[in-house]
């Protein structure tokens, strides 16, 4: 038997119990004639104690252990003199009587810690080491718990989980297909599914009125923070229902997940917003409503005063950042560089500070009188100490998306995007098609059956 207990299991009630543990060396500390080893597995950390006065050869063996060595120990559970409230096993330690090295390890290229010193590229190269970190492990555990809860919830509502094929014929969807050449039919190709849409439609007409699948999907798209070539989705379909039935079912599932996974009970109905309003007010079909900064359109106020950037623009819009008038010129220049990055693509940024006395000082003062700037201030509902940030462009939708990125950046800088705060939203009435500037044709915004 390689272990009798895990490294996160032992408690004060286990004192004087002989145990066998196996795991990875997290760190070691030598203090006088004592050596302390933190032994880690995915369940937690347990402190091991080696005493040179009691067993010098064993202590010498422990002193040669490096980080990420895989070891097995036998020993007696002992109450710790100096307890550690930060770990679940902090009341006990193991007085080791036997040590076996199961696998020696080279020094890892980065620390196996929550705040590691390894960059993204390095951690991806040594992914098997990165997966040992608590933060990554917790994400996988969360994903596991969610899939269990999703299956349980939908099963109780009569949904049937059905696996659908991965090698399919190409169907018109919202992105490019990944293709797989056919060995049996030269010159012909399979496509990897962007979604199981065709198959779940077949299930519906076959009488399987409630289907779901936790399924891998593939889309040949450029990499972005919210777009990957392959991803997993909770895929569902229902027959004999209307939009309200679908929303009610999956709003209930979302509330169930919040309660069972995070211990958060959401009583109020989710907010609802049309796609048109979401794009107009936030520049995104998944707006972050944890903070304000709703877009204000300014073309009627700011055009016609000789500032060609605005006079020639198809869209002029901005956000009001409460209490940010104290931003320095250096900070504002950094924001300008942020929106000019190739990933965002704006040509520049106009800003205006609302002073304590209500007057407005802007980066384009020479074009606008105080009267016009006051109209702009009123449009935002701005007050003393606020900062107004404005973007313009010859494509309204593109400029709104740029302004969205600026809004999110300000939310990050001001600490308004708290990961433990949740505002749930249904975005409804999505368009069926949108114009693709690269291909000069209309493309499905999402799969035609689901828009």
Automatic annotation (TrEMBL):
Keywords: Aminoacyl-tRNA synthetase, ATP-binding, Ligase, Nucleotide-binding, Protein biosynthesis. It is an enzyme of class 6 (ligase). Its EC number is 6.1.1.12. GO terms for biological process: aspartyl-tRNA aminoacylation. The keyword Mitochondrion does not apply. The keyword Protein biosynthesis applies. GO terms for cellular component: cytoplasm. GO terms for molecular function: aspartate-tRNA ligase activity; ATP binding; nucleic acid binding. Residues 140-365 form the Aminoacyl-transfer RNA synthetases class-II family profile domain. Pfam families: GAD, tRNA-synt_2, tRNA_anti-codon. Belongs to the class-II aminoacyl-tRNA synthetase family. Type 1 subfamily. This is Aspartate--tRNA ligase.
């Amino acid at each position: 038997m390689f272990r009798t207990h895990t490294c996160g299991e032992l408690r004060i009630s286990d004192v004087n119990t002989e145990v066998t543990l196996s795991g990875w060396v997290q760190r070691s500390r030598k203090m006088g004639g004592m050596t302390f080893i933190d032994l880690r597995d995915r369940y937690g950390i347990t402190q091991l104690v080696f005493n040179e006065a009691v067993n010098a050869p064993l202590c010498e063996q422990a002193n040669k252990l490096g980080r990420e060595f895989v070891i097995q120990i036998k020993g007696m559970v002992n109450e710790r003199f100096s307890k550690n409230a930060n770990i679940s096993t902090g009341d006990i330690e193991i007085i080791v009587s036997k040590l076996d090295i199961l696998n020696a390890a080279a020094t890892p290229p980065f620390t196996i810690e929550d705040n590691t010193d390894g960059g993204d590229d390095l951690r991806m190269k040594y992914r098997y080491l990165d997966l040992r970190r608590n933060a990554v492990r917790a994400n996988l555990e969360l994903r596991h718990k969610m899939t269990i809860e999703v299956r349980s919830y939908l099963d109780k509502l009569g949904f049937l989980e059905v696996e659908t094929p991965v090698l399919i014929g190409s169907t018109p969807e919202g992105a490019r297909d990944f293709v797989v050449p056919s060995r049996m039919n030269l010159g012909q190709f399979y496509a990897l599914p962007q979604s199981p849409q065709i198959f779940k439609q077949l299930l519906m007409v076959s009488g399987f009125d409630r289907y779901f699948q936790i399924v891998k999907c593939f889309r040949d798209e450029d990499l972005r923070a919210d777009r990957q070539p392959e991803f997993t989705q909770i895929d569902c379909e229902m027959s004999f229902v209307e939009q309200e039935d679908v929303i009610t079912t999956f709003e209930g599932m979302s509330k169930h997940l919040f309660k069972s996974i995070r211990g958060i009970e959401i009583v109020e109905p989710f907010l609802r917003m049309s796609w048109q309003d979401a794009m107009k007010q936030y520049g995104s079909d998944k707006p972050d409503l944890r903070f304000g900064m709703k877009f204000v359109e300014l073309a009627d106020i700011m055009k016609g005063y000789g500032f060609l950037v605005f006079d020639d623009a198809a869209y002029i819009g901005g956000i009001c950042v409460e209490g940010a008038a104290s931003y320095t010129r250096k900070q504002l220049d950094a924001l300008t560089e942020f929106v000019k990055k190739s990933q965002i693509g704006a040509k520049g940024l106009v800003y205006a500070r609302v002073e304590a006395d209500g007057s407005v000082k802007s980066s384009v003062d020479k074009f606008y009188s105080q009267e016009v700037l006051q109209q702009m201030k009123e449009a935002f509902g701005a007050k003393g100490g606020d900062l107004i940030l404005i973007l313009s462009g010859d494509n309204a939708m593109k400029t709104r998306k740029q302004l969205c990125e600026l809004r999110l950046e300000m939310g990050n800088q001001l600490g308004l995007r708290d990961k433990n705060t949740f505002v749930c939203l249904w975005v409804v009435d999505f368009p069926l098609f949108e114009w693709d500037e690269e291909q000069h044709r209309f493309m499905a915004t999402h799969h035609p059956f689901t828009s």
